Amino acid sequence: MTTLASSAARVAAFTLAACCSLAPTFAQDLTRKAPPQSQPIAIVGGTVHPVVGEIIPDGVVYFSGGEIKGVYTRDAWAKVVQVALFKDPLRVLDASGKHVYPGLISPYSQLGLTEIQAVRPSNDMSETGDVTPEVVAGNAVNPDSTLLPVTRSNGVLLAGVFPTGGTIPGNASVIRLDGWTTKDMTVIERAGLVLRFPGMRAVQAWWMDTPEEDQQRASNAALERVRKFFDTALAYDTARDGDPATPIDLRWEAMRPVFRDAAGRDAGEVAAMPLYVQANDLDQINAAVAFCLERNLRCIIVGGRDADRCADLLKAHDIPVILSAGTFQLPRRGDAAYDDAFTLPARLHAAGVRFSIAGGDDTAHERNLPYAVAMAVAHGLPHDAGIKAITLDAAAVLGVADRYGSLEPGKSATLIITTDSPLEVRSNVVAAFIDGREIDLSNKQTKLYEKYLERYRQSGDLPPKP
Asked: What share of the chain is helix, strand, coil (3-state, %, to 5)?
């Protein structure tokens, strides 16, 4: 006999299975993926913004095989054409009246890891456990996320993808925002290890009911755990160096690159793999820098809301900052100016601290990255420095500046053609290329626009499509 309880259990199980089976449908990008570049392309007549060097009015960007071969003035290009022998027919794109920029780069995001924040099955940002250095964020990226096409349609073509949760949540990855598979999208699988540094100061707020002494004890205990994690990882690394037969532990194996330089183990050199340390408060940043200097780790601060207060320290040790909260933030202190977050990039720029700017909003709004920078430009940051913060400087903190972030011969042909500065809300991206591949700029929103435009054509409220 079927009982009510067993029937309810079957219904619950069926519902759970249905939800699990439908999870992938939360994100289904139906735009086409771009094929490899098949013929050389010259973008002519536009204002070229190389990021390095002077702006070139009426310039030319020539690329083939996914690589920029040259950036020219119109006159210099005319001389090249006279003597050049192109293997394949040259495709010429007229960008007269438009601008050519490197593809924008989001230095901190969860693109591809989350779709709808309120729907748990569509979020894959964190692993179970407090210490999971073996996790690689890029391996969990969903190539069919509907958030990718809408983001790249506003010029953002690369992104740093960071895991969340836990003290050591894993490795950040650098991805292209187009590709059939996760492997196609990956630029760097392991761009750096992420460490959430413990808070150093007790919280004094109306909602905090834990005594300051207890908070401080908890902070001290958390810092001691971090020290032990790294001491254990270094001891494992030393043991593996001494005896390759030492049993492999995937967690500590994943941490070995942070103790090494490019030539192998060398305690006197900076490690090749950076440590992305999430820290915001002044005391937290100071402690994080001291921690990394003590262990000779390559430190990159992620967060950095108080970075200007320790600018001398950061500049002295050439430690860059990713402003992961963006600029659309409330002041952190009651006595801070209303525009404290807006002017932070300008203050860092004036202090000579290297930095890049993230969007700071929900992943669904990652397309607004240029406007987070525009707010900083409106409050004192030079325009060129703002562009650099989401191109070459972002590429540098993610370890891809040798290939991306500027328009130079030998670099990837990852670029955008716009009607105006990307920081201008009224500007549109009219064409985009990733590694020379022409990207489909349509997305769910543009498809819906076309759909309902057709409705008004059919009703006679708009003239028929020509």
From this structure: 35, 20, 40
| d(C-alpha 79, C-alpha 68), whole Å | 18
Phi, psi at 330, each rounded to 5°: -75, 155
| Beta-ladder partners of 299 | 275
Distance CA 169, CA 131 (A): 6
Number of domains into which the chain is organized: 2
**Domain of 110, in residue numbers:** 104-404
Going by their DSSP bridges, the two strands 99-102 and 415-418 should be labelled as: antiparallel
Note the pTM of the prediction, 2 decimals: 0.90
Number of residues assigned to the chain: 466
Answer for the pair 113, 124: CB distance below 8 angstroms, yes or no. Answer: yes
Fill in the amino acid letter for 197. F
The position carrying tokens 């009607």 is 419
Q: 375 with 409, same domain? A: no
129 and 160 in contact (C-beta within 8 Å)?
no
Residue 401 has pLDDT above 90, yes or no: yes
Angle made by CA atoms 369, 370, 375, in degrees to the nearest 5: 100
355: nearest Cα among 154, 107, 103: 107
Residues 185, 176: contact at Cβ < 8 Å? yes
Q: Is it the case that residue 16 has pLDDT exceeding 50?
A: no
User: Which amino acid is located at 203 in the chain?
Assistant: V
What CA–CA distance (Å, rounded) separates 29 from 274?
33
pLDDT tens, position by position, 61-72: 999 999 999 999
Q: Which two tokens stand for residue 26?
A: 């939360």
Q: What was the pLDDT predicted at 249?
A: 93
322, 277 contact by CB (below 8 A): no
**Same domain, yes or no, for 90 and 168?**
no
Give the span between the Cα atoms of 82 and 75, in whole angstroms.
11
* pLDDT value of residue 214: 84
Identify the CATH number of the domain in which residue 263 sits.
3.20.20.140
Report pLDDT digits (tens) over 245-258. Answer: 999 999 999 999 99
